[in-house]
Amino acid sequence: MVKLFSLSVLYKGINSAIWLKSAYDLTYFGFFQRGSVQEFMAFVSKTIVERTQAAARQSVKEGEYTCHVYVRADNLAGVLISDHEYPHRVAHTLITKVLDEFAAKIPASEWPGGTEATINYTQLPFFLSRYQNPHEADAMTKIQDELEETKIILHNTIDAVLQRGEKLDDLVSKSEGLSVHSKAFYKTARKTNSCCSYVG
After folding, report:
1. What mean pLDDT is predicted for residues 92-120?
2. Which candidate, 2, 21, 1, 3, places its Cα nearest to that of 11?
3. What domains are there in the chain, each with its CATH number?
């Protein structure tokens, strides 16, 4: 069974990405792992948005999951984290739909200074739940057809999208956004080559 773990909307600023809204489904993970898994997924999502050009799409594998990213020309960005089995086209169809709806409800003037607390958009948990089954996207054939014309860049590791000389391990160790517990969890998972592995 394919799985979706997180769905996020961010704004790609000049120097960093800003969180606007996010939703998580971490029921596949052990109870005591969930906090660290959520922190790490948020960290990876923000990092990849910051290193994705405007008007570009990519899907990046990291450990046990794939991070699908779309940064629109107006710098509104969506990130969907799934397992490797989730279809890339369906993932990007969902991200496109979410960003279109978000942009229609939340004025662009609110994006640069927005926070999860100030942005009034409540649909992410609904989409994350509904699209656990990728066949739910079948009704969206119009967007699907448009995406067939769109190039999605695929990467086998997150290191491929980082700037020259950057390594995920170094970014994790320097991050102020990750707790000591999450950093220790990441290092342990890295050693066993099953970062953020979930209980199937």
Report:
1. 96
2. 21
3. 4-188 (3.30.450.50)
